[in-house]
Design a protein that fits this description.
Blueprint: E1 2-3, E2 6-7, E3 14-19, E4 22-27, E5 41-47, E6 51-57, E7 61-64, E8 76-80, H1 87-100
Antiparallel strand pairs: 1-2, 3-4, 4-7, 5-6, 6-8
């Protein structure tokens, strides 16, 4: 996971908890110049050194269900490889990669 081109520890930016049949995701605000007021965070993801994605958060908290759908679809923007996948798989892959580091 990256903030711009800098490798980051996802635990400083995201907190993921299991909640019944959902995952509760908390996003920590990143101060950036020239971003809209409701902007929370923007993260770049490189998976297996090949697949690139970006997530832009306009919410600081959301739920992901068993099917990988989230309850804040209008406030989370995806680009790149992640647009082809469900959220549960994406976040599990992120956590898997970080545990190998």
């Amino acid at each position: 996971m990256f903030d711009g081109s800098f490798n980051i520890d996802p635990n400083n930016y995201l907190k993921i908890n299991s909640l019944n049949n959902f995952y509760n995701v908390s996003v920590f605000k990143i101060e950036k110049d020239l971003k809209p007021k409701n902007f929370i965070s923007e993260l770049n993801i490189l998976y297996r050194r090949k697949y690139q994605s970006k997530i832009i958060f306009y919410t600081n908290n959301f739920l992901i269900d068993f099917y990988g759908l989230n309850n804040e679809i209008e406030n989370i923007i995806f680009s790149g490889d992640m647009t082809k996948r469900k959220l549960v798989k994406c976040f599990l892959l992120i956590m898997e990669c970080d545990n190998k580091i």
